[in-house]
Amino acid sequence: GGIVMKTVNAGTSGVSGALSFTSGTTSRGASGSITLATGTATNGKGGNIVLSVSPGTASIDPTDSGGDVIVRAGDSTAASDTGSGGAISLTSGLGTARSSGDFVVHTSNAGSSGVSGKLSFTSGTSSVGNSGLISMVTGAATNGKSGSMNYAVGAGTTGVAGNFYLTGGDS
């Protein structure tokens, strides 16, 4: 059977209640983990995990934006040189006999006015040492052709089409 956890709906004003899942603190050692996982499917497809923000209507404040999804790894406050911040790792699924899963990142189309959202990949700055590397590499193919890379600027119907820039850093 399923388990449903939800807060009560808000009345005619106010907001609905928040759901918070937090592990406890510790004075020594690691704090507790939070695991969100579906069970194994022996003769079927594994269950989905959906993180979704429901739409909102901007009838009170027309400048309201949709809700955000924020994923942030932990900071390290270690005084030594070995304490690094936590990593974020997103990996598509393995296909034992077939293809691995796709990894798709895209913004939604613009509405009747405005522009579609931007994609931004930026490494952090560094006051001592090098800043972070951004690496985009296709995998090797043992018995086939390696994957292609395609960078393209989309077409526009008015004005000048978008530019494509590759710029090296200043010394």
The helix-and-strand class reads: little secondary structure
Percentage of residues in strands: under 5%
The N- and C-terminal alpha carbons lie at a distance of 62 Å
**Number of β-strand runs:** 0
Largest sheet: none
Global morphology = extended
- So how many helices? 0
Approximate helicity band: under 10%
* Unreliable parts: none
Alpha carbon gyration radius: 23 Å
Average pLDDT confidence is: 87
What does the model show?
By secondary structure, the protein is mostly loops. The protein contains no helices and no strands. The chain is extended and about 50 Å long. The mean pLDDT is 87.
Brief sketch in words of this structure:
The protein has no helix or strand.
Features:
171 residues; little secondary structure
Map the helices and strands.
Elements: no helix or strand
